[in-house]
Amino acid sequence: MKRLRLFINKKRESPASTDVMPLKDIQDELIGHLGTGDTGTTEAVDAAIRQAVLHGASDLHFEPWQDCLSLRYRVDGILHEVARIPKAYQEKIIARIKILARLVVYQKDAPQDGRIDADEARGGREMRVSTFPTVYGEKTVIRIFDSSRNVFELDSLGFRPEVVADLRELIFRPQGTVLLTGPSSSGKTTTIYALLRELAALREPAPHIVTIEDPVEYRLGKISQTQINPHTGFTFENALRSVLRQDPEVIMVGEIRDAETARTAIQAGLTGHLVISTIHSGTAAGVFTRLLDMGIEPFLIASSVTGVLAQRLVRINCSQCTAEYQPEASVLARLDVGTEGTAFRRGTGCDECEGIGYRGRTAIGELLVINEEIAELVLGRSRTRVLHDAAVRSGMVTLAEDGVEKARLGVTALEELRRVLPPAVS
Question: Which of 16, 90, 111, 250 has CA 20 to 30 A from 261's CA?
Fold first, then answer.
């Protein structure tokens, strides 16, 4: 939900300057540092990270190409190239990042993972670093964690009030399994943390909450958080089996990746625990098909799963340059939208959004709450389409319907919905 910030001052006062510069000026800034001598690489890396933080980027991609090292920021879910750095500086920059992340500098033929501690010179954020060998050198991605953000408020994520109310009802049940689904960078982790914060703050007495994550992205008070380590055999499945002996009331499993973890989590939801987890699927109804394909018995799914939330993040029109426009016929047809009585809007690009047309993101979602009809359909191994239609008849607002409503209100553009929405359910 971060936004690109305004350019405040072009003059660089010091390496730890907090000035936000336009994306188009970052390349000159970095190359200027690199040409200053022995400390140039350190200052260039710090500046690259610091500007990413100031622009609200979630990731930095240092990508070795044949003729240069490309630097890209992921802002509001989209990668933007901000610099092409001469190839001569590539190894020094990657080595500096590996030193910060406590990685083996000379190991270049195998992936490595590490962390960078918070430091004011680099924006004061903790970060995760991943390196990966390519034919042109090591590709390095830095994920920025912002634990200072106050975004873990369920009411502020952008979901419809009815979805928020139903989610609260689900997590205040004493047991059951609540699943979230969506692609990477769809906001699942933020939603889960918001749910856990509500449980820790509002349920009296505070429940015993344990999380199993890969990795722990944000640290929450009153909650026991642990990070898996597959290299030592500490996997999601093993961690979940162990934590069940710790007398938890609420268990958050970062991701259900295999049948063993799925079965253990769902059984835990049947035996007096509230389980919250994520699983990859295109739609809410598709989660049941995925679980069945994993070999989970239908009666376990129907008895344990209480709700499934499918979500996406859509970019918000820049408030300073939004204007009415006529969507393309192909977009209207793809989303099955009529234009009568609606003036659709989108950002046209301005200095405040740096010509992008969007600033920030908001969530759209479809929440499938299990009722008797859907449980019977799961027991009968019904197809995704049948489950989806039954949920709609029960009042579920689909991802497409939620998104189109936001477009009608001018929050986002129809083209943005086309980018993030899954294919039609079949």
Answer: 111
With beta carbons less than 8 A apart as the criterion, state whether 121 and 54 touch.
Answer: no
Distance from CA of residue 41 to its chain's centroid? Answer: 30
Cα distances (Å, whole numbers) of residue 347 to 20, 284, 331, 410, 414: 22, 30, 17, 10, 12
pLDDT digits 0-9 by tens, 383-416: 999 999 999 999 999 999 999 999 999 999 999 9
* CA separation for the pair 190, 202 (Å, rounded): 18
CA 269 to chain centre: 25
The number of C-alpha atoms within 13 Å of 238 and in the hemisphere containing its C-beta is: 9
How confident is residue 121, by pLDDT bands cut at 50, 70 and 90?
confident
Q: pTM for this one?
A: 0.89
Whether the CA torsion 47, 52, 54, 58 is positive or negative: it is negative
The Cα 376–Cα 387 span in angstroms is 10
383 C-beta neighbours (distance < 10 Å), count: 14
Q: Are the C-beta atoms of 178 and 306 separated by less than 8 Å?
A: yes
Positive or negative CA dihedral for 5, 7, 8, 13?
Answer: positive
Q: 141 is written with which tokens?
A: 């991605």
Q: Residue 261: phi, psi to the nearest 5?
A: -65, -40
Query: Do residues 305 and 371 lie in contact, with contact meaning Cβ atoms separated by under 8 Å?
Result: no
